[in-house]
C-alpha cells in the first residue's frame, strides 16, 4: 500500500470499510485526498449503497452539498 498515492490509499480504506458486514458507515472527510473524478465515483457508490439500506454519517468539510443530498 505504500506505493499507492494518498488518494488511492483513501479509496482502498473506503473499499475495506464497505466490505465489512455493517449497514452504517461513519466517514470523516472521505473526499479530503480525492480528485474530483474520485469524489464523483465515491458518491455514486454511496448512493448505490444507500439504495440497499446502508446509512452514512459523513463529515462534510469538503463535501457539504453532496453529503446533504446523500444523508437525507
What does this structure look like?
The chain is mostly helical. It has one domain (6-71). The protein is built from three helices and two strands. The protein has helices at 6-18, 36-50, 64-71, and strands at residues 24-27, 55-58. The chain has a two-stranded parallel sheet with strand order 1-2. Strand 1 (24-27), helix 2 and strand 2 (55-58) form a beta-alpha-beta unit. The longest helix has 15 residues, at 36-50.
Task: Label this structure with key terms.
mainly alpha, 2 strands, globular
How do you describe this structure in short?
The chain is mainly α and 72 residues long. The chain has helices at residues 6-18, 36-50, 64-71, and strands at 24-27, 55-58. Strand 1, helix 2 (36-50) and strand 2 form a beta-alpha-beta unit.
Number of strands: 2
Structural class: mainly alpha
Helix proportion? 40-55%
Average pLDDT works out at 77
The 3D shape can be described as globular
The N- to C-terminal Cα distance equals: 34 Å
Low-confidence regions: none
Largest sheet: 2 strands, parallel
How many domains in all?
1
Can you list the strand order of the major beta sheet? 1-2
Fraction in beta strands: 5-15%
H/E topology pattern: HEHEH
**Total of DSSP H or I helical runs spanning 4+ residues:** 3
CA-atom Rg in angstroms: 12 Å
Break the fold down into its secondary structure elements and pairings:
Layout: H1 6-18, E1 24-27, H2 36-50, E2 55-58, H3 64-71
Parallel strand pairs: 1-2
Amino acid at each position: 500500500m505504500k506505493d499507492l498515492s494518498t488518494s488511492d490509499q483513501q479509496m482502498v480504506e473506503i473499499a475495506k470499510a464497505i466490505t465489512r458486514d455493517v449497514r452504517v458507515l461513519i466517514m470523516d472527510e472521505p473526499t479530503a485526498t480525492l480528485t474530483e473524478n474520485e469524489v464523483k465515483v465515491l458518491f455514486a457508490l454511496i448512493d448505490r449503497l444507500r439504495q440497499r439500506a446502508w446509512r452514512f454519517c459523513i463529515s462534510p468539510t469538503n463535501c457539504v452539498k453532496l453529503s446533504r443530498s446523500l444523508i437525507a
